[in-house]
Amino acid sequence: MKGGLRQSMAWLHTWVGLLLGWLLFLVFCTGTASYFQDEITRWMQPEVHGLRDVTRGAEGAIAYLQKHAANAEQWTIQLPGHRAVATTAFWKEKGETFANWRDHEFLVDGEGHKVEARDTLGGWRLYRMHFDLYYVPVLWARWAVGLAAMFMLVAIISGVITHKKIFADFFTLRFGKGQRSWLDGHNLSAVLALPFHLMITYTGLVTLASMYMPWGIAAAYEKPTQYYADAFGTADTPARSGHAVPLAPIGGMIEQARAAWHGADPGNIFIPVPGDANAVVKITRGTDEGMDTRGETLTFDAATGAMQARPPARGPARATESVMVGLHAGRYAPLLLRWFYFLCGLAGTAMVATGLVLWTSKRRQALPDPARPYFGFRLVERLNIATIAGLPFGMACYFLANRLLPTGVVDRPGWETHSLFIGWGAVALVACLRRPVKRAWVETLSVAAAGFFAVPIVDMMTTDRGLFVSLWHGDLVFASFDLLMFAFAALLAYGAWKVHNRKEAVRVRRKKEAIA
Amino acid sequence: MPRSASTGAPPTRLAAALDVAARTLVAAVGGYAAAALNAAGLARWLPMPRVEAVMTGMLASFAVFALVAICAFAAARAGRVAFWTSAYCVPLALALYLAKHGGVA
Fold first, then answer.
1. Does the CB of B36 have a partner CB in chain A at under 8 Å?
2. A215, A316, A321 member nearest B40 (Cβ)
3. What pLDDT does A101 receive?
4. Which of B4, B12, B58, B67 is most worth mutating to test chain A (most A CB atoms within 10 A of its CB)?
5. Does B92 touch chain A (CB under 8 A)?
6. Is the ipTM above a cut-off of 0.90?
7. Smallest Cα–Cα separation from A157: which of B20, B7, B65, B26?
8. Could you please report the per-residue DSSP string of B31-77?
9. What are the TM regions of this chain, as residue ranges (chain A) (predicted)?
10. CA of A226, closest CA in chain B: separation in Å?
């Protein structure tokens, strides 16, 4: 293309980045939040108290299932990871599909007691939005996100080639210089976390590889189901014998599993045809127990509690895949590394946001009439405001709805999510209608800041686990969540204030230049 | 966008648009085809258990895609990348077809 490699890569980077930038902003925002998925869920279920205890959680869940779902087709118990407290369990009646799972779902705390908590999907909703989006069929969403990820991979590589002096950019951040500052900000957030961005994009594609790239399966297997059985183990349901046999104690099976895994905790228990003589108990290692996130599944005879033969060890390719998915999701990460993941995610969000703003900032001087930009320019300008200020406000609304919606509302988790999009839509409307652009930025960023500021305040007014109580009791999860909300409010308010003062800065500089 | 290699005359808007469209087509379709066929070839012929071979092909496929996409925009002419991508894809597709349906290997 024109002017050699660097120019053509710059062109590619600009347009690929712009086209998928808004979607990538959503993917980065929700993905970054998902590193604290368990903590968000805990904050959104303030009724759950106490500490995590995997064995008592499992025993409590089984006791409840035996009492209320003795004839169910299958039982599933999702045990809490190291950063969670509650066990989630559900059963499936005959003829139901997995889509019905929330019809028979309940929570058990670390004492083994069933908890009546507000109905919410917590951090899990944001995690799913990261690749399933919302209001669109899941398959379309995953293809759209995959396309964005592929574009991002190309944008990163072309971005690196475009760079003249990648090392110098590491140390360069010039404030108050208009377009140059946006470029510095874009470079800094991109270059500083470049290994993370490259890793997260490639491993993100790997998490859904069998959907994006199924051709190897078609070439080597007659049926895809055979491949999935080879790769991830079968979930065959044993046939019912018709003889009822009670379940052996689950605690003993968990102990055997722990011994087999050198102390690692189980994360999931699956019991098909419970109560039958043919029933088995399938215990899968917790996803947060190692960098290889796909834990082994052990099978036990439900009647005797004896462990069956272990599955053969994974080959190197599947082990690599498991580690790549683990690196992406970061479930293994201890606290310090988790914060680092979170900061890298924020850097990615900033990279996308500054890149989007840079597109307009770079073209503004070149406009034939700066007061009346062409349609495409106005569209990008408004979409940038709608996305960059709108989505954060939507997320604040999601948290606020969790505290403000009455507990009896039908489809409460659904309305929490609708609140996110209602809030986002309202800001998007302001972003499109308010003139001039500067005013739209100031107002939307202020609204978003107010939204985050309101979250800990509303929490304080509606629950007994407000910021001061949490700090007093040393409840770091709740206190950190509330403080982080204040931090985001401050960040967005700072942004609004900067935009508000921008014109003055330019005028002052012009005056200085005139004097000089 | 394209440099008119022979005459050196400034490119027209239409020529530029066509050039970008051609490159995009080569990057998207050619890139995906090369990645998919590469994954299928590795899955079929890598000397390891087939589940491992399938997984290896999948893990490598996105790098193949990115390589073709970058080349499609980096090369002087889109046609050149289209040629080399086809030169890789067509024989591979043929061999895979024969292996699967023709009873060979």
1. yes
2. A215
3. 73
4. B58
5. no
6. no
7. B65
8. HHHHHHHHHHHHHHHSSS-HHHHHHHHHHHHHHHHHHHHHHHHHSS-
9. 12-36, 140-161, 182-205, 339-359, 379-401, 413-433, 440-458, 478-497
10. 9
pLDDT band at B13 (very low <50, low <70, confident <90, very high): confident
**A155-166 residue pLDDT tens:** 888 888 777 666
Which whole-number Å values give the CA distances from A205 to A31, A143, A211, A481, B20, in the listed order? 14, 10, 10, 30, 26
Which of B32, B37, B46, B62 has the most A C-beta neighbours within 10 Å, making it the best mutation to test the interface with A? B62
Mean pLDDT, rounded, for A476-493: 97
| Residue that has been written with the tokens 């469209």 in this structure | B21
Any idea what DSSP says for residue A104? G
Q: Is A221 on the interface with B (CB under 8 A)?
A: yes
d(CA A356, CA A335): 32
- pLDDT over 70 at A367, yes or no: yes
- Of the residues A151, A217, A228, A234, the best mutation for testing chain B's interface (the one with the most B CB atoms within 10 Å of its CB) is A217
pLDDT digits over B37-63, tens only? Answer: 999 999 999 999 999 999 999 999 999
Query: Average model confidence (pLDDT) for chain A?
Result: 91
* Predicted TM-score of the model (pTM): 0.91
Sorted by sequence, the CB contacts under 8 Å of residue B76 that are 6+ apart come out as A1, B3, B5
User: What's the token pair of residue A332?
Assistant: 């293994």
Domain boundaries, chain B: 28-101
pLDDT mean over A289-311: 94
**pLDDT reported for residue A220:** 94
Element (H, E) at A76: strand A74-78
Answer whether the bond into residue A195 is a cis peptide, omega within 30°. Answer: no
DSSP state string for A143-205:
HHHHHHHHHHHHHHHHHHHH-S-HHHHTT---TT-THHHHHHHHHHHHHHTHHHHHHHHHHHH
- Nearest CB to B70: which of A157, A216, A317? A157
A202–B contact, CB cutoff 8 A:
yes
Summarised one tens digit per residue, pLDDT across range A122-145 is 999 999 999 999 999 999 999 999
pLDDT digits (tens, 9 = 90+) for A5-63: 777 778 888 888 898 999 999 999 999 999 999 999 999 999 999 999 999 999 999 99
Q: Find tokens 């190897």 and name the residue.
A: A216
Decide: B70 and B37 in contact? Cβ < 8 Å: no
Query: A216 vs B65: CB contact, 8 Å cut-off?
Result: no
Point out which residues pair with A114 in neighbouring strands. A108
B37 lies within 8 A of chain A by CB: yes
User: Residue B2 above 50 pLDDT?
Assistant: no
Half-sphere exposure of A46 (CA within 13 A, CB side): 22
Quote the tokens at residue A307.
Answer: 């462990």
